[in-house]
Each structure stands twice: as C-alpha cells, then as structure tokens.
TrEMBL record:
Keywords: Hydrolase
Domain of life the protein comes from: Bacteria
Protein name per the record: Alpha/beta hydrolase
Keyword tRNA processing on entry: no
InterPro entries associated with the record: AB_hydrolase_1, AB_hydrolase_fold, AB_hydrolase_sf, Hydrolase_4
One GO MF term: hydrolase activity
Sequence ranges assigned to domain Serine aminopeptidase S33 in this UniProt record: 28-140
Organism: Lactiplantibacillus songbeiensis
Amino acid sequence: MDFNVTRDGLTLAGIYEPAPQPNGTIAILMHGFMSDRGYTDSALLVQLAQHLREIGVGTVRFDFNGLGHSDGDFANMTVLSEIADAQAVLTAVQDRLAPQQIDLLGHSQGGVVASMLAGYYPDLIHKLVLMAPAATLKDDAIAGRTRGLVYDPHHIPAQLPMDNGRTLGGFYLRTAQLLPIYETAQNYAGPVCLIHGDADHIVSYQASQRYDKVYQNSTFHLIPGASHLLNGAARETVLQLATTFIAD
C-alpha cells in the first residue's frame, strides 16, 4: 500500500508491504545514488523486501527526493537532504505503524544515509544492513572525481551536467567533502551486517572495511566477483546474508 511521506513540502513516494505473519519488526530500505525504491521484480530492494516479508518483517521503501516518483529536483539532492528524507520516513513509520523494532537496510549512497541515521538514532534502530555503502563519496568529492565527473574540488561550480542527462548540484559535492560519515555512524552500537563485492569498481570495499573497524558489533562479508549492483550470481548470496542477519 502507498506510504507517502511529506518532508519540507516535498512528497516522498513510499510503499508499505506488511508481512503475512508479522513479527513486530519493520525494515526501512534505502536505495542508492540515481536509483529508486525498485519497480521491477529484479530490483535489489524489491527482492530484499520479499525475502524479509517471508520471515515476518514488514517493509517500507521509498524514493529519495528528486528520484523515482518523489517530488524534488535531482540537482538539489545532497546526502544531507536524503538523511532528512530518511528521518521523515522513520518518524512516519513510528507514528503510523508503531512497530516493536525498526531495522535499516541501505545500498550504496542509501547505505551511507542508513549508517548516519542509525548514528543519530541509536536508541531506535534495532539492526543495520549496509550493502556496498558508498562512503567513498566523500573522498571522491575531495579529489574532484565523482561518478565520471572531473572538477576542481576547490572551486566547485553550481551545477555539473552528467552523461545521463541529469544535473548534479555543486552543493552536493561541497557538503560531501565535509560529511562526518564514520564519525556519525560509529555512534550506533547495535548489530551491523556489512556486505560488499570485491569486484566493485564504483565503491571500493575498503569503505566497508573501514565501517567494520569503527563499529563495535559488526560482521563484514566480502563477496568474490560481486559488482557494485550486487547482481548476477552474487544476488542470492546477498539476499540470504541480509535475511539471515535480520532473522537471527
């Protein structure tokens, strides 16, 4: 069913899918940079939601601002605005669904958002799954190289056109350079499952290794041959790892 959330005048397009036999846990799923909540059966978050519902976990997934069916302009998107989106969804889940426990699962940039949100709300989040978390986005912004864009990191333009026709806002890069990603994330002391592929050419698996070092209660799974999208032969492994972690 629709689970739309309003944040600062923007409507975020969400969907809530209850588990057939609910166990009291709701999982909030977060997608990556330029992606969406998943609208096909092959999408990672769609498949993950299906597996979670089979173990009694209801799921909420949504499009970040400027993506999918949500309001907003992608050129105005930043990691900070996505954290604000996620916080609004977290509050809505608490208020509307009143779950006994809330888990967060994020892929790529959604993993960074999930990790920081858990750091801000360590008392509310039960478990955390980070799949190819894109914490290297800060290093990329500092170096002046982001997703195929090359720019002067000390003189960032207001907008940068991308090859896919989208426009990345310069404020995204300026804020990315100063994000306290690991410093915020480590405030969460609950169980963390880290999943990354060793063939990820977009986000080095060293990002997950660093998360593993700062967390108090984490497990790191490096999947041989898996790409950033964690698709192909690796997909079933990812789904099983995440589902088993949430179920235990």
